Automatic annotation (TrEMBL):
Residues 17-208 form the KARI N-terminal Rossmann domain. Pathway: Amino-acid biosynthesis; L-isoleucine biosynthesis; L-isoleucine from 2-oxobutanoate: step 2/4; Amino-acid biosynthesis; L-valine biosynthesis; L-valine from pyruvate: step 2/4. Gene3D superfamilies: N-(1-d-carboxylethyl)-l-norvaline Dehydrogenase, domain 2 (1.10.1040.10), NAD(P)-binding Rossmann-like Domain (3.40.50.720). The gene is ilvC. Mg(2+) 2 binds at D217, E389, E393. Residues 209-344, 345-486 form the KARI C-terminal knotted domain. Its cofactor is Mg(2+). This is Ketol-acid reductoisomerase (NADP(+)). GO terms for molecular function: isomerase activity; ketol-acid reductoisomerase activity; magnesium ion binding. Involved in the biosynthesis of branched-chain amino acids (BCAA). Catalyzes an alkyl-migration followed by a ketol-acid reduction of (S)-2-acetolactate (S2AL) to yield (R)-2,3-dihydroxy-isovalerate. In the isomerase reaction, S2AL is rearranged via a Mg-dependent methyl migration to produce 3-hydroxy-3-methyl-2-ketobutyrate (HMKB). In the reductase reaction, this 2-ketoacid undergoes a metal-dependent reduction by NADPH to yield (R)-2,3-dihydroxy-isovalerate. It catalyses: (2R)-2,3-dihydroxy-3-methylbutanoate + NADP(+) = (2S)-2-acetolactate + NADPH + H(+); (2R,3R)-2,3-dihydroxy-3-methylpentanoate + NADP(+) = (S)-2-ethyl-2-hydroxy-3-oxobutanoate + NADPH + H(+). InterPro entries: 6-PGluconate_DH-like_C_sf, 6PGD_dom2, KARI, KARI_C, KARI_N, NAD(P)-bd_dom_sf. The lineage of its organism: Bacteria, Pseudomonadati, Pseudomonadota, Gammaproteobacteria, Alteromonadales. HAMAP family: IlvC.
Amino acid sequence: MANYFNTLPLREQLAQLAQCEFMDAGEFTDGVDALKGKKLVIVGCGAQGLNQGLNLRDSGLDVSYTLRASAISERRQSFLNASENGFTVGTYEELIPTADVVLNLTPDKQHTAVVSAIMPLMKKDSTLAYSHGFNIVEEGMQVREDITVIMVAPKCPGSEVREEYKRGFGVPTLIAVHPENDPQGHGLAQAKAYAAGTGGHRAGVLKSSFIAEVKSDLMGEQTILCGMLQTGSILCFDKMIEKGIDAGYASKLIQYGWEVITEALKYGGVTNMLDRLSNPAKVKAFELSEELKVIMRPLYNKHQDDIIDGTFSRVMMEDWNNDDANLLKWRSETAETNFEKTPAGDVEISEQEFFDNGILMVAMVKAGVELAFETMTAAGIIEESAYYESLHETPLIANTIARKKLFEMNRTISDTAEYGCYLYNHACLPLLADFMKNIDTDVIGKGLGEQSNQVDNQTLIQINAALREHPVEKVGAKLRGYMSAMKKIV
Ligand SMILES: NC(=O)C1=CN([C@@H]2O[C@H](COP(=O)(O)OP(=O)(O)OC[C@H]3O[C@@H](n4cnc5c(N)ncnc54)[C@H](OP(=O)(O)O)[C@@H]3O)[C@@H](O)[C@H]2O)C=CC1
Ligand SMILES: CC(=O)[C@](C)(O)C(=O)O
Ligand SMILES: [Mg+2]
Ligand SMILES: [Mg+2]
């Protein structure tokens, strides 16, 4: 097998990267009908597997789980996830032959082995579904020609796929049909029904391609979504400790701060997030974010370049073949960081205080969202896709840090995302070393303590215009307009 993307002519690569059509709510009036009465068998019951299965069943679909024989015999967590939620669980031999749709929700590293094992058992004219395009695009998996291959990719950690559904909302979702495998022409109808079953249509669905999803998902997760929040947590915490801020306070400000400040982002974009600051703090946050964008832009370009040409995938797959040695080493190193080892203090921090004392965090989120959006769109990803992958998903990742710090984020996201997050963190920590030398508690930990809200009018006018004029704000206003069912979290 070879990297599918790299086998295509540039014309086709660009066309697939640009595949992105916002699907109006009217396209989902049939709901889950295309899958009603069909047997959906999910392989794997982890972050996506469990939460998607719960949503699909609540949406009236017939869902069961097939797990590795060892998972069942050893009653592993995946078996408990499925059985304790009342699902039928069986081996591949027992359930795959009965499946109309097989949802492959195992780790990307396992996809070639899993698909190779289940394909011979899949009945003629059935469907194979993915939630990430890595196996098809980066590995070039060849699927039997009678099998329809679709993708329904939530732009969100598995846990929040379920939480947003329970709130009556959903998460933005990319759907696609693999052009090499749509023999009966019903791939799109099935993908739409699957997306509706997860609740994705309530947040927004893009008709995308396996290529557009992979090349944007890898970029978002490695940079703004997980990498920036990991690096920002470590740098901001260590700076506060260096400057004598109480460790419990510092830990709480960061652990819960990302969620609070990015909730403003989710509702009103970067503009609303900065509008939550005083004028002097907004000017400071804007200046810091502009400085951060200059420093980090080469890193964001390198991540996108390595994703586009397959370098990232090759390097990660080398680690797969080395028993995940780097992934496991970097995971344990993360657990040893001061931030991870310091519990949040039993101290009251008001919602506004997270903004006032977290000016640097606001600047990092602004810089990361804008850089990721700008880099993705420069690489051919369409704005709507780049918005979901940079701005809208950041608060959903922040929700996981609020639960149990970087441990929970890295446990909930895919191993692929976790690996990319560590690559970014290893590069960004030294990259920001000089920048952090000039940082003090006025922007992280204590706030400006300004006596008045006065700033230069011209400066404020220019900053407000720059915030509102950024393309992520324009496409964001349109997409948030469709999210009438969005629910408050903080
Ligand atoms: N995590 C996330 O938030 C997101 C993930 N995705 C995508 O969803 C897919 C699933 O990822 P995720 O939910 O994170 O995966 P998890 O690691 O959370 O769960 C993997 C599941 O697969 C099972 N599994 C592991 N290895 C094998 C194997 N060799 N054969 C069969 N089953 C196996 C595990 O059970 P056991 O080990 O007990 O057998 C577990 O139930 C991936 O393609 C990922 O890219 C997409 C969007 C977000
Ligand atoms: C949660 C999500 O969308 C990620 C970051 O892409 C992943 O876990 O792979
Ligand atoms: Mg993703
Ligand atoms: Mg991902």
